[in-house]
Amino acid sequence: MATKKSQGTPSPETQAEAMKIARATQKPGQSKEQTKLIAQGIQHGIEQYKKQQKAKSRERDKLRKKQARDKVQDIEQTTTDVPAVEQVVVSKQHWLPWLLLVVSWIGFISFLQLG
């Protein structure tokens, strides 16, 4: 089972990056303790930023998954609706054109026999 890192210890990369930034902004006459405190503040800021980015990433993933799920449901719904629409169109055939065709053929045949 994987163990979680404790919240109190930042990663070595974060510590190194914070110390690098603190040294870059160090003022003349500043003690090592003050620089260390500044580095801790920078570490805290970096951790907060990473937490915010992870939260935003999770929200984006949730939204993307939800949109994908909705899209699949829409596709499934439209595929089930298509046969129902076709059945309705097929069942709406009217008898009047067939009746007119039969009557016209009967009239044509009777015209030929009488004529």
UniProtKB/TrEMBL annotation:
Residues 48-72 are annotated as: Disordered. The chain crosses the membrane at residues 95-114. InterPro entries: DUF2956. Keywords: Membrane, Transmembrane, Transmembrane helix. It comes from the Bacteria. Pfam families: DUF2956. This is DUF2956 domain-containing protein.
